[in-house]
Amino acid sequence: MLQSDEELRPTHEPVLLTEVLDWLNAAGGGLFLDCTLGLGGHTEAMLEASPQTRIIGLDQDTEALAIARQRLAKFAERITLIHANFRELASVLERLAIKEAQGVLADLGVSSLQFDKGERGFSFAADAPLDMRMDTSHGETASDLIARLAEDELADLIFDYGEERGSRRIARAIVKARQQQAITTTKQLADIVIRALHVKGYWRIHPATRTFQALRIAVNDELRALEEFIPAAIAALAIGGRLAILSFHSLEDRLVKRRLQMESGRCLCDSRLKAARYAPVADLENFVCPECGARRRVTTLTRKPVRPTSEESARNPRSRSALLRVCERVQ
After folding, report:
1. Which among 25, 78, 17 is positioned nearest to 241, based on CA atoms?
2. Strand pairing class (53-59; 237-247)
3. Domain 136-219 superfamily per CATH
4. I need a surface site. Which of 161, 222, 247, 304 has the fewest CB within 10 A?
5. What is the pLDDT of residues 170-203, one digit of tens each?
């Protein structure tokens, strides 16, 4: 059953909402692309900011789309909602014959809906099927993934995507446990991680947090999707248009920072080769590095990521790790 607008508001507060609206110049109106629509909080505020605003909203979660559609019903003439992963942005815009947008937003956080509904398997707060798919219509679940991967592959995944120093012990424990019975629930996996890390008593951050993060990223191919999304989002911008990306952990933020550096013309190749590579180039504005792909299409507006105020962090604990980076299309 879909929730009413009033029921949604207490549990879903858009992160860095004022900052996003300001950086995207939402009050000026125009066409905006919300590429991770979620429950529609950012989109609702952008639509309220100007009667001249139109929005195309994408989300891969059909349940979230249904709730957002209900929430945004009063703006039906100014919104188009699409079931798609944000990595599909270019093909979606081509299908809709959209040439350019004034702003693009991507909020990379897992939505309140996904975290709060135990049956989705994103959280260890409740015992639930170990799923973790943002798009439940297809793809491999987290349970399928840990049943398939070899021990060394599991260890690498948990270390690379979760930055978990105990990844080898956790992978070894998972393989041993799955030999006895299939690991199909969040509680099973969380208990395995706790035992593997020999954690006792009270902990500030649950010991399984990094492992769950790693599996979620892998199941949804989040980092490669983000790599594909950023250049497509920049290509969709009008000159002077802005891209705003909200990330929630260091892996995402490093990737966003690196990609925006490349898109602002900073070559990331070996520094010893840069002088030789750049010297013959008369027109740096049109230079494209044949190795790393660096080219100047944007200027980065946020030298350091924008973070929530202490008031927002206290009011909405899920915002505490949010990092906002913004760039503007210049050519």
Report:
1. 25
2. unpaired
3. Putative methyltransferase TM0872, insert domain (1.10.150.170)
4. 304
5. 999 999 999 999 999 999 999 999 999 987 767 7
